[in-house]
Design brief:
Radius of gyration: 38 Å
Structural class: alpha+beta
Strand order of the largest sheet: 4-1-9-6
Strand content: 5-15%
Distance between the termini: 68 Å
Helix content: 55-70%
Number of strands: 9
Order of helices and strands: HHHHHEHEEEEEEEHE
Oligomer: single chain
Length: 304
């Protein structure tokens, strides 16, 4: 599972790196979400592979059931070659059981490597275990019946021996299934909690980075709030509550309601315009917010 997480996250970071020339802003929250989606996609692929193996196993059991029916019909018939028909079908059953053993081992390996366990998989493995137990009993009874008729088939003995081993292995895997499922659930919850915490932190930091404060007033008003002290601006214990808090990405125009205005804080002149409207009252228009607020997150404007 750790290998899966590393591969998924590295894939997303590599993609983000390739897109750096196209995007000017690096969004950590998006990278986090992309990482989670990549992990989920990788798990989906693993589940699809395991479901393909399960389908093959189930098809093998269906073929075995059909062959067993043919054995029943052949051994009760009066055909001269019924013994040969029985042998052929039992050999077919033995081959299918061998293939199913290999497929079950493959599924066990897939489950160990991925570490992914769900309710559907747990139920299916239980069904496979029960089905193998039933087949073991059926094959034992068939062997006894054939031996009583002096029909001995080597492949059938090998199949039953292999089934005994596989049933024990599946029982062990079933016992480990619940523990691994609980571990996966805990891991998923921890991952989601970590993602939520990081997203919350990123949002808080993003909000702080994009917060600005502005104030405009007459010289006496600014002095009264200790914002202006002689020719010095924001040098003492000024009244911060007198400022208006804004999101600098949204607020790009500030009406000053005065026919005279000048900025007391330093901001690049290329990032804004200060001009009068149709009523002759000044309006500050911020044309490049990122540059405008790069020197100070406080804006002080003196009006008359």
């Amino acid at each position: 599972m750790k290998k899966l997480l590393v591969v998924a996250v590295c894939g997303v970071l590599a993609l983000a790196s390739c897109n750096q020339d196209k995007k000017t802003a690096f969004n950590p929250a998006q990278i986090q979400n992309d990482s989670l989606r990549a992990i989920i996609d990788a798990r989906d692929n693993e589940i699809n592979d395991m479901m393909g193996t399960l389908n093959d196993i189930q098809q093998g059991f269906a073929d075995i059931n059909e062959a067993e029916n043919r054995v029943t019909i052949a051994k009760d018939s009066e055909s001269k070659d019924k013994n040969e028909q029985v042998k052929e079908n039992v050999q077919f059953i033995a081959q299918r059981m061998k293939e199913n053993r290999e497929l079950i081992k493959k599924l066990q390996q897939q489950l160990r490597e991925t570490g992914f366990k769900g309710d559907a998989m747990k139920k299916t493995l239980t069904q496979l275990t029960n089905q193998l137990v039933r087949k073991e009993g059926e094959l034992k009874r068939l062997r006894s019946e054939l031996e009583s008729k002096n029909i001995h088939i080597k492949e059938l003995d090998e199949t039953i021996t292999g089934l005994n081993t596989d049933v024990e292995n599946l029982k062990t895997d079933k016992e480990n299934l619940t523990t691994e499922k609980e571990n996966l659930t805990t891991e998923k919850e921890n991952l989601q909690n970590e993602s939520n915490q990081k997203t919350e932190t990123i949002n808080t930091q993003d909000k702080q980075l994009n917060t600005g404060w502005y104030v405009f007033g007459t010289k006496s008003e600014l002095k009264g709030q200790r914002i202006l002290d002689g020719d010095r601006v924001l040098q003492g214990a000024f009244n911060k509550s007198y400022f208006t808090k804004i999101d600098i990405r949204i607020t790009k125009e500030i009406k000053l309601y005065s026919k005279s205005a000048r900025l007391l804080t330093a901001h690049p002149s290329s990032s804004y315009s200060l001009s009068a409207d149709t009523n002759g009252q000044y309006v500050l228009r911020i044309t490049d917010p990122q540059t405008f607020w790069s020197t100070s997150k406080y804006l002080v404007i003196q009006v008359k």
